[in-house]
Automatic annotation (TrEMBL):
Name of the protein described by the UniProt record: DUF3311 domain-containing protein
Keyword Membrane: yes
Keywords: Membrane, Transmembrane, Transmembrane helix
InterPro entries assigned: DUF3311
Segments traversing the membrane: 12-38, 50-72
Keyword Protein transport: no
Matching Pfam families: DUF3311
Amino acid sequence: MSQTPKTSREPVVTPARVVIGICLVAPFVAMLWVGSYAKTDPAFIGIPFFYWYQMAWVLISTALTMIAYKLWQRDQRARKGGAGK
């Protein structure tokens, strides 16, 4: 009998995937931890901390999502390149 090699589709934890996870979870933790930013001081150009902190996280979240996406693309290319060899 001939045996076909089993292809493993198990999830692989790599450093890149850990960084991707951290990039995607960080905004949720920052926004759900309301006690850390539920205050008015320090104000920034007259805007209370509560508001500018949240708006800053909009930009930070965008950057972290872009980083996660680029890392994911690189990881997928590496896995496809490694599987063909």
